[in-house]
Amino acid sequence: MPPSHPVRREPALGGLPGALRTYALVWVALGRTEESVAAYDGYAGLLRAMSLRELGARAAGAGARVLSELTSGLRELGRCEEALTIGREGRDAADGVLVWTLP
């Protein structure tokens, strides 16, 4: 018997961060890269301002993921310098999450 509620694949960040990620995903699905980059940029800015305690352990990888998604959008728009900078930041964020989650 299926569960009575949907199973989440990733932790939800409620409020404005969650809404911005949802907007970004919708813009990507509609092929509106410029709008998705703006939403991802806002989402990344909010995550940067949050502490690990505010994010919670389950959402620690959110920063690395959104930076990766933002990098892809920037690259698609031809904004290569920004993509390189954000990509490095995303790599550093992913390294920190991996070190933190893997002994």
General shape? flat
* Average of per-residue pLDDT values: 78
Q: Which structural class should the secondary elements be placed in?
A: mainly alpha
The total strand number stands at 0
Helix content: over 70%
Order of helices and strands: HHHHH
Distance between the termini: 37 Å
Low-confidence stretches: 1-11
Largest sheet, described in full? Answer: none
Compute the number of helices.
5
Proportion of residues in β-strands: under 5%
What Rg do the Cα atoms give?
A: 14 Å
Helix-strand blueprint:
Elements: H1 15-29, H2 33-49, H3 52-55, H4 62-76, H5 80-101
Helix pairs in contact: 1-2, 2-4, 4-5
If you had to describe this structure to a student in words, what would you say it looks like?
Helix 1 (15-29) packs antiparallel against helix 2 (33-49), helix 2 runs antiparallel to helix 4 and helix 4 packs antiparallel against helix 5. Helix content is 71%, strand content 0%. It is mainly α. It contains five helices and no strands. The model is unreliable at 1-11 (pLDDT under 50).
